[in-house]
Amino acid sequence: MKPGPGTYRVGGKVYASVLGLLSPQASSVEVIPLSGRYVPKAGDLVVGTVTDAQTTFWLLDIGAPRWAPLHMTGTPWKVDIGETGRYLTVGDAVLVRVESLEATGRIGVTMLGEGLGKLDGGTIVRISPARVPRLVGKKGSMIDTISRHTGAKVAIGQNGRIWVGGSPEAIQRVSEVLRLIEENGPRSGLTTHIENYLRATQPADRPYAGPSDREIAGPGGFASPDEDARDEPPAPPSERL
Amino acid sequence: MGNVGAKETPILLTPDGRRIDGRLKNELRPVRIQAGALRHADGSAFVEWGHNKVMAAVYGPREVHPRHLQQNHKAVIQCRYNMAAFSVDERKRPGLDRRSQEISKVIAEAFDSVVFAEEFPRTSIDVYIEVLQANAGTRCAGLVAASVALADAGIPMVDLLPAVAVGKVGGEIVLDLKKEEDNFGEADLPMALVPQSGRLVLLQMEGHMTEEELGRALDLGVQGCRDIYEKMKAALRERYTLTPIAEAAR
Q1: Mean pLDDT computed over A105-122
Q2: What is the phi/psi pair of residue A170, to 5°?
Q3: Top-ranked range on mean pLDDT: pick from A141-155, B3-17, B233-247
Q4: Which of A131, A189, A226, B117 is most deeply packed, by most CB within 10 A?
Q5: Which residues of B touch A104 (CB under 8 A)?
Q6: Structural domains in chain A plus CATH codes
Q7: pLDDT average, residue stretch A69-89
């Protein structure tokens, strides 16, 4: 038996190195961690906050072990050297993609790509990175439900940082839902539970708009409600469901 | 600690082998461990061990502060052991002193020998141990709390690190000294064990004992560590055990 991720071998025996769930594979054994910081993967969409602006790059806190440098050439802007602070300053929120991982632990990120960029306004809620698949749901069902019921704009980072924009009430409701997901992540029936919660707390002056046919980006993608859906009659259930 | 204000030595061991709090020589004080006691830390634990109350929080791996401590091939493990001003009878002057610096150092080194630090180059794993109430054996309680907090933080390690103190009291080798035994006893021997390998990664001694007594003390301590180890594992299991959604929704 070969030691897989989350394990180590001493004297022919394999031991767990992290707290987690045992997952026997065909020729190896691995332990899936139940906790821990975000482990970046190339291609991940992440929400970060700017922690430092250098002359040619910014440093982003994406919840990983290291701060991730975002070089000025990795942005849609034409940034002059030394002028980085005019575009992003410490505390700004951004949606970026993990581009490269180096053996030194350096995490390269880029802001070039559809939907990537600075996140204006809103707030960032942190959940465990392990809960992100739960928040997205099957083919985006969970996040779809949440944004439809609340009218909030939500950007999901694979790092467990969730940016929420919209009215203060919408942000408040999404934050509460995120807390429920965080606490009940591994339980079954979560989407139904969340939907019931959202229905029960739907404000009278902003009735539920019903499902819409809008596009949703893939897991971790941008999800925002169709602004016009409110004024239209509820659309028929889409093929996605 | 010293014996300031102490009048005379209390009876530490009765003829029938009972200690000042009624325990037997090889008996631990009651230990309660709660994993995941804090919200903002990456991992945390709260330990009540006899009359000791210790909170531990772990952050990281994260950026190293101060920068010059950064190591290119591994994570640095930084530990701060601190006693609250209200943790002892007489007010403890807050902040770092020689004792807490020493304890911080030996605990950091103990963890350095079990954590797979090479997996996180140029980062820091920060361990904070706050003693809220002290009654002898706080470095062991702190180490146990910090070890559970490290596991809770998902840090890869060889094993958990149970710890316990053995001492010599009334001429006998006894497990897990409490305050009076520590103050008036003949020796105190804290240790931390790696159960997987049987290695000791922390061993200190204050006082005197013979070579033969030391051997017995180590055996007793290792047994005590193994008991603590089970409690640590149980605490982590409890933390990650699920209750059905209806109950959780309260």
Answers
A1: 95
A2: -60, -45
A3: A141-155
A4: B117
A5: 72, 121-122
A6: 2-31 (no CATH), 45-119 (2.40.50.140), 123-225 (3.30.1370.10)
A7: 95
